[in-house]
Specification:
By secondary structure, this protein is mostly beta strands. It contains no helices and 10 strands. The protein has strands at 3-7, 11-13, 18-25, 35-41, 48-54, 59-61, 69-74, 79-84, 93-100, 109-114.
């Protein structure tokens, strides 16, 4: 079974860049047709899909976040990463990495943006 684990700083200052990494075990990020997403949940709100990197390295982003978001991968380490630029307190959320197909989730990591 594929397992995902998020890592990164829990506190980021406004205007800085939020950087998170998802480490994958039990499967390869280059497996055909796998799609690796970042999803977040602000306090008191629903899940928000941020973007995805596919098995072939292609990326797609939420239109509302596209200008500030980058997703990349490190195939050697079997990891994929999120960068969210110019953060504001409204970017405070629990950030998850997610795999389709199969629906595996990381445990989530809390990121707080300080003003």
């Amino acid at each position: 079974q594929v397992q995902l684990q998020e890592s990164g700083p829990g506190l980021v200052k406004s205007s800085q860049t939020l950087s998170l990494t998802c480490t994958v075990s039990g499967g390869s990020i280059t497996t055909h047709y796998y799609a690796w997403s970042w999803i977040r949940q602000p306090p008191g709100k629903g899940l928000e899909w941020m973007g995805v990197i596919a098995y072939d390295g292609s990326t797609y982003y939420s239109p509302s976040l596209k200008s500030r978001t980058s997703i990349s991968r490190n195939t050697h380490n079997n990891q994929f990463s999120l960068q969210l630029r110019s953060v504001v307190p409204e970017d405070t959320a629990v950030y998850y990495c997610h795999l389709l197909p199969g629906g595996s989730w990381g445990q989530g990591t809390q990121v707080t943006v300080s003003s």
